[in-house]
Amino acid sequence: MILVVDMSWKKDSLAFNEFVLPITSAIQPFETCQVKHFSEITLADLYACSKVVLSGTALKDHATLKQLDKFNWVKTFGKPLLGICAGMQTISLVFGEPLTTCLQIGMAEISTLKENPLFHGNFNAYTLHNFSVEPSQTFETLAESTKCIQAIKHKQKNIYGVLFHPEVRNQDIIQRFIRLI
Amino acid sequence: MRLGVLFSGGKDSTLALHLAAEKEEVACLITVVSKNKESYMFHTPNIDVTVLQAEALGLPMVSVVTEGRKEAELVDLEKAIVEAKSNFQIDGVVTGAVESVYQASRVQRICNRFNIWCFNPLWKYDQKALLETLVKRQYQVIISGIFAYPLDEKWLGKQIDTHVIAQLAELQSQYGISPSGEGGEIETTVLDAPMFKQKIEITEHVVEAKGNSGVYTIKQARLVAK
Questions:
Q1: How many CB pairs under 8 A join A and B?
Q2: ipTM, 2 dp
Q3: Residue after which a domain boundary falls, among B61, B86, B119
Q4: CATH C-level class of A2-178
Q5: Which of A54, B12, B15, B195 is the most exposed place for a label (fewest CB within 10 A)?
Q6: For residues A166 and A174, is the Cβ–Cβ distance under 8 A?
Q7: Which active-site residues of A does the annotation give?
Q8: Residue B123: which of A22, A106, A107 has the nearest Cβ?
Q9: Is there a contact between B121 and A22 if contact means CB atoms under 8 Å apart?
Q10: What CATH number should be reported for the domain holding residue B182?
């Protein structure tokens, strides 16, 4: 079972259909999933799932970036984790890596910089973000656009982040993530 | 949160309005009347009916007219959003975008420029399921424009019901037509919806069609009790 975490500013928000449902739609043909709001994640949820996907949020929604205490579990979580957009930004902050301003809205060309199990080569993806990350000690950079880093992986853990929204035009990336061992 | 809904009077923007009103306060409708029948951004058939629809909904409307030139029409949309922000103190905009990255990203950019929220509650909604939702929620929606093979004049004015959905799904499997018209294959007009306090009765209409392209234009209509 995949745990999909709703990262929106409040539970059952108007953004749910836009940022959470497309992720569950990409997962459900292949694997069962459960959705929980980030404020309600329990140890039992983390124990019961095989992997976790953190959703993106509306462009103006930075709620999770100000509530990092709700994500302490990320540091010790031993299973594969994928953060999308605000999910990737939150993961970076949890590990003490700062964000950098980078506005991108719309389709962008993504270039893979390092071989990885989720994607390869150059491809187009939908972007909707105000922040990215800088190269860091904690994460390796997997991909970039002409403007900023677009995908990262923790150097020791199975923790991935993509800034673009794979649930919009690149659902195969989510499907490769759920097949990760 | 107070929201303005980009409203064309078609099924997508009306359902988006419905979903938005279930979660937040809808303060006004925002309508762009495009003179360009082939606008990339805006629905055009029966756009004048939005005045009656707004009255049926009991919502104020901000309306602007655009010549509909690509990209320039975005400046007119921007003016409408600024007016809605100023007159109705909206915190955000709602669109009926389902698949169009072109439409969604342009509205996102305008909202970002004016520091307001942007919501797309139908984003990536399964197209057949969207039509089924309309029927389940007792919407009365007619097909008011057809723009693809093998659709013809017979489709114009048809009400979307389970039979029509099955026919559209069949055309999807045979010809790749999007059943909800996401590729611009069909346009729709909403005559009644759960949020409407009255419904629209068409008293005069004209059908103009040539081959696989045509519109059902409402010439006269009125609000009647439901």
A1: 62
A2: 0.95
A3: B119
A4: alpha beta
A5: B195
A6: yes
A7: 85, 165, 167
A8: A22
A9: no
A10: 3.90.1490.10
Amino acid at A1: M
Averaged pLDDT in 10-residue chunks for chain B of 226 residues: 96 96 98 74 74 96 84 87 97 95 93 97 92 96 90 92 92 80 83 97 93 90 96
Query: Half-sphere exposure of residue B188, counting CA atoms within 13 Å on the CB side?
Result: 26
Q: Where are the beta strands (DSSP E) in A113-158?
A: 122-133, 139-144, 149-154
Chain B contact set for A25 (CB, 8 A):
124, 126
The structure tokens listed for A127 are 């972007």
| Residue range(s) defining the domain that contains residue B188 | 127-224
B36-to-B16, B70, B87, B158 alpha-carbon distances in Å: 24, 9, 27, 24
Partners of A129 in beta bridges: A104
Task: From residue B104, give the alpha-carbon distance in Å to each of A26, A82, A128, B96, B120.
Answer: 20, 25, 10, 9, 8
Q: Which residue has the tokens 């997508």?
A: B12
Tell me how close the Cα of B222 comes to any Cα of chain A, in angstroms.
32
pLDDT in tens, A121-166: 999 999 999 999 999 999 999 999 999 999 999 999 999 999 999 9
pLDDT of residue B41: 59
pLDDT per residue as tens digits for the range A73-100: 999 999 999 999 999 999 999 999 999 9
Chain length of chain B: 226
